[in-house]
Amino acid sequence: MSRLRVDTRRRLGGLEHRADFDLPLAGLTALFGASGAGKSTLVNLIAGLLRPEAGRIAVGDTVFFDAARGIDLPVHRRELGVVFQDARLFPHLSVADNLRFGLQRAGARARAPRVPFDAVVALLGLEALLARRPHTLSGGERQRVAVGRALLAQPRLLMLDEPLASLDAPRKAEVLPYIERLRDEFDLPILYVSHAVDEVLRLASTLVLLERGAVVDAGPLTEVLEHPAAAPLRGGADAGALVYGVVREHDPRYGLSTLACEGFALRVPRVDLPPGARLRLRIPAREVALALSPPNDVSISNRIEGRVEQLLARDDAPHAAHLEVRVRVGPQTVLAAAVTRESAERLALAPGLRCWCLIKSVALHADALVLARGRAARAGLGGD
Amino acid sequence: MFTAVEIEALRLSLQVALVAVAGSLPLAIAVAWLLARHEFFGKTLLDAVVHLPLVLPPVVIGYFLLVLFGTQGPIGGWLHETLGVRLIFTRWGAALAAAVMSFPLVVRAIRLALEAVDRGLESAARTLGASRLDVFFSVTLPLMLPGIVSGGIVAFAAALGDFGATITFVGNVQGETQTLSLAIYSLTQTPDGDAAALRLVLIALALAIGALFASELAARRVRRYIGRA
Fold first, then answer.
1. Which of A270, B1, B10, B50 is least buried, going by the fewest C-beta atoms within 10 A?
2. Hey, what's the torsion of the CAs at A335, A341, A345, A346, to 10 degrees?
3. Residue B128: closest CA among chain A residues belongs to which residue?
4. What is the interface pTM, i.e. ipTM, of the complex?
5. Which domains does chain A have, with CATH numbers?
6. Residues 95..124 of B with a Cβ closer than 8 Å to A: which?
7. What percent of chain A has pLDDT over 70?
8. pLDDT computed for residue A132 by the predictor
9. Does the structure show a pLDDT above 60 at B106?
């Protein structure tokens, strides 16, 4: 799989922007951080609208920038699609001509377009807008046209720089489903800049975390989500773990559902999704207990075997009575358990130790469980 | 309705002004681009030179033109010897004088239009695969069009009315360099020329009002074309 490699330094407005990450180019990668954390700067560096002072940027086999080798590929030859916060449609062109702007300049890639014109128009619901001028469009319509225009340039990577930030809630709700369909229907890697928690949780499979100009962590959403800087994404400082699952069956007798997760099954209060539906759920660390042997005489129905990976004392609460124990239960899955320091010593918890995670089914209440608080949490199994 | 002399002067004026504007537009766009988008050594000097015709007496501009473009001048001499082109006492010379006099007006209008173009649109075009030159012709230039049109029309009106630089540089030759303004001047110097002068003044007035009207109409059309109305 081709990869996005970024290792750059750039001073801008008194802030040193540093990025160093290497991610697979697949699915939707969210760039998350507070306003002013340097998300747009990173997009501009990758697009070539800003030049790093040092470092290297490569997408797949193509080197965009390499300070050491004196490479700086011009913006128009980077074959990217960028959607800006303010749609930036060309006011002197009709919607159709805006859409074709990049397509007409895509050269050989346009002859056998991976993303055909009609498919984009249909996907984004632009049929009725084609003859109109940008100034007659609503904000949501403008963003949809901007997304279509970027898509039609046949990019190898689509970058969306807070495409919904300038929209009010109803317009946001109008555009968001289109971005989901975009992610699912075209096999096109997407870099999605946002400081909106719900958007990131709903759309992303990979996460790049920025803080004060620097990329502090990058990787699969499930892992990066546990970084202290991702606290807003977790809904506060509460630790927890993200788990992907598929609804296997419902048990009407007890009002429970069984989810097939990676290497284990999870019994949870009935989820309102059909069997086969994918979902993503977050298991709070405080709802997970640990045992050193498989307990058979407890009421807890979820017992998941794993190995202790690390013990973390949360930076944000250095004198807290509890530790966060990270237990690997599958190649892609790590659970987090909140354990008192006392218990940790008594059990002699240490990395490598075999243990069982105990999760009370009732603790996994569907509302708290299914991400995006029950709204459309079907997203996000891609890329894993 | 019009006498042959009047038609002659009117046609010549329009010709001279048209050539002046058409000839100076590309250069004006280039100079406006340099002034609006680039920092370079001598930028202030270039800015000052472009604006000289606004602050100097037109006669002085005419004098400079005479020195530079006369058959003995460094540029005029070269033109005369190698291309056989003579500017003084010709309508081409009149067009040059009109162009120089109206140049600052065109540059100002185009520069303002250029500075109003959203650079974000240009960046967007570049990410969509357009080279810098392509961006200029497909995005920047169309968006500058209102400024170019209004600048061009103002310049046309100014070129139409120039007197000092024209008479100093190319004289007052009936049928060759005697534009409307010069013809009016000549008639006022002639005994019993007042009535004829008045007729020309009315023509000039009609022309000026027509130009302003056309300018407004054109600007409105262009704004609608680029979707800003």
1. B1
2. -90
3. A102
4. 0.82
5. 3-234 (3.40.50.300), 279-374 (2.40.50.100)
6. 118, 120-121, 123-124
7. 91
8. 94
9. yes
